[in-house]
Amino acid sequence: MIDLGLSKLALIGAVALIVIGPEKLPRVARTVGTLLGKAQRYVSDVKAEVNRSMELEELRKMKGTVEGAARDVESSIHSATSGVEREWSATASELTSSYESSDGVMSELVSYPEYKHPGKNWRLKRGSVPAWYKARQGVRTKALSGAARVARHRPPGAVGTARRPRQLG
């Protein structure tokens, strides 16, 4: 790398002032500054691309190791489940043979209830607000007609509140 100290930069500036002249020097300095900025951005972009490619390669290696470990786990699970299946089938065959010999007729070992669909709107019914909560909060649970609402909120002794006696018969 080129080692530029303060004395070397001053010498380059003095030579540029003599060669280029004082009128064109600011414009040339601006152009050189923009070119140096573009070069620095280009170098940083190249560095970032190299770092990304290295990280991508590391991720690929890590992916391969994880996939290998997953395959090993899968094979161990398959071997364990096949052993359990073999034991289960052996136990089931022993049970069925002993059950047949004792009864003579093979019937259901375990009876399960028949599936019943929960019906329409079962999620709505399960998620509804309980009646005790509605009563505590003062939420109406039943719709009242207009006349019933007026009669309910009419003060006692008001006109038209006398009830007719029930007729028997």
From TrEMBL:
Q: What is this protein called?
A: Sec-independent protein translocase protein TatB
- Which stretches are transmembrane? none
Q: Which keywords belong to this entry?
A: Cell inner membrane, Cell membrane, Membrane, Protein transport, Translocation, Transmembrane, Transmembrane helix, Transport
Q: How does it assemble?
A: The Tat system comprises two distinct complexes: a TatABC complex, containing multiple copies of TatA, TatB and TatC subunits, and a separate TatA complex, containing only TatA subunits. Substrates initially bind to the TatABC complex, which probably triggers association of the separate TatA complex to form the active translocon.
Name the InterPro entries for this protein. Answer: TatA/B/E, TatB
What PANTHER family does the entry give? SEC-INDEPENDENT PROTEIN TRANSLOCASE PROTEIN TATA, CHLOROPLASTIC
Q: Where in the cell is it found?
A: Cell membrane; Membrane
Q: Which Pfam families match?
A: TatA_B_E
- Example of a GO MF term: protein transmembrane transporter activity
**One annotated GO biological process:** protein transport by the Tat complex
Q: Which family does it belong to?
A: Belongs to the TatB family.
Species in which this protein is naturally found: Hylemonella gracilis ATCC 19624
Functionally, this protein is described as follows: Part of the twin-arginine translocation (Tat) system that transports large folded proteins containing a characteristic twin-arginine motif in their signal peptide across membranes. Together with TatC, TatB is part of a receptor directly interacting with Tat signal peptides. TatB may form an oligomeric binding site that transiently accommodates folded Tat precursor proteins before their translocation.
Superkingdom classification of source: Bacteria
CC terms in the record's Gene Ontology section: TAT protein transport complex
Protein topology in the membrane? Single-pass membrane protein
